Amino acid sequence: MENIKCVVIGYGMGKAHSQFISSTEGLELVGVCDIDGVRREMAKKDFPFIQTFDSVDDLLKNYDFDLAVIVTPHNTHYPIAIKCLSAGKNVVIDKPFCITVQEATDMINLAKEKGLMLSVFHNRRWDGDYLALKEVVEKGLIGDIFHLEMFMGHYGAPGPWWRSYKEISGGALYDWGAHLVDWILGLVPSKIKRVGGFSHKLVWNDVTNEDNVEAVIQFENGAVAYVEMSSIAMAQKRRWFILGTQGSLEDEWGARGFRLRKLVDGIQVEGLVPYKESDWSAYYKNVAEHLLKGAELAVKPEEARRVIAVIEIASNAQGQMLDFPQELY
Fold first, then answer.
1. Spatial contact of 60 and 85, defined as CB atoms under 8 Å apart
2. Is the dihedral of CA 255, 261, 267, 271 positive or negative?
3. What is the pLDDT of residues 52-107, one digit of tens each?
4. What is the secondary structure of 20-63 as a DSSP string?
5. What's the CA gap between 114 and 87, in Å, rounded?
6. Which residue, 17, 124, 285, 316, has most beta carbons within 10 Å?
7. 149-190 confidence digits (pLDDT tens)
8. Interatomic CA distance for residues 204 and 223, integer angstroms
């Protein structure tokens, strides 16, 4: 079958997507769209054979392709995706999917109506550490998870503009928090029951993102997960801390593996579970196999919508525990 012709919209972080696409059998990079002329020149230098465009409207009006890959600021994901889906293009969106559940639902419904693929670049599912962790959990080595904590933070001003302003990013949980929540939902085999959230705005008053955000996820099977993102954390916490009915897993930033503790014949043993090799190329390999051969899509839009639901609820919960919309399952 012919290759899937791909256009990357946004060539900042979109350069990495362009490289993944170019190295994936069945996918062909044919264009880049960016409002910044310097970035368009960079794209043309990196990939001389492509066409470049300065607006999505011009791209959709004047160029024939199959797959749009949207790598732009968070608040633009939804309007650009709606335009591309309406024009009959399959769509990949860099995480986070969007800002609100309603936006996610609109995109999912439109993709279904048009018979198009819609997916989100949750490439971190193929991180070597997460692959090792998921294998241990799925083999039942620590029993059933009942408590899980994840932390990511430091003490320092937020990053570039789109990471600093809530009206663009959605808030402090939307960037790396999207990966953290996606990981957690992939580890706990239960529907979400309630979500809560707490936030602080104490130090970085020149920007609008929260300084510290915590999400609490309660699952129907009783498990509870905590996620914290912070730009005012002077001290570090463990990155992963997981308790199961038969053991535990934890690791630190910069570690080479997970510390596993469990009982074996009544004796507590401890060992290191080494990380596996990361394989981010697996995401686009799956996209190609889905579009060309009908393989099951690895990252379904409904899964990404649940991630957004957790983040949206936690970002606005103001200390409350709120019911999770069961219609999202």
1. no
2. negative
3. 999 999 999 999 999 999 999 999 999 999 999 999 999 999 999 999 999 999 99
4. HHHTSTTEEEEEEE-S-HHHHHHHHHH-TTSEEES-HHHHHHH-
5. 9
6. 17
7. 999 999 999 877 777 999 999 999 999 999 999 999 999 999
8. 34
Order of strands, sheet of 118-121, starting from the edge strand that comes earlier in the sequence: 51-53, 27-33, 4-9, 67-70, 90-94, 118-121
Q: Are 263 and 143 in contact (CB under 8 A)?
A: no
Q: Which residue ranges does the chain devote to CATH 3.40.50.720?
A: 4-122+280-295
Smallest CA-to-CA distance from 186 within 109, 230, 242, 103 is with 242
The alpha carbon dihedral of 62, 67, 72, 78 has a sign of: positive
Residue type, 327: E
Q: Which residues contact 140 (CB under 8 A, 6 or more apart)?
A: 246
pTM, two decimal places: 0.95
Calpha distance 54→286 (Å, rounded): 29
CA distance 73 to 13: 10
Question: How far is 57 from 51, CA to CA, in rounded Å?
Answer: 15
Which residues have CB under 8 Å from 233's CB, separation 6+? 151, 153, 154, 155, 212
Residues of the chain with CATH 3.30.360.10: 125-279+309-328
CATH code given to domain 125-279+309-328: 3.30.360.10
Question: Distances from the Cα of 40 to the Cαs of 16, 43, 72, 75, in angstroms?
Answer: 15, 5, 14, 21
284: which 2 tokens? 């686009």
CA distance 226 to 93: 26
- Whole-angstrom CA distances from 267 to 183, 262, 263, 264 are 30, 8, 5, 5
The CA distance from 65 to 88, in Å, is: 10
Q: Residue 152 phi/psi, 5° resolution?
A: -145, 120
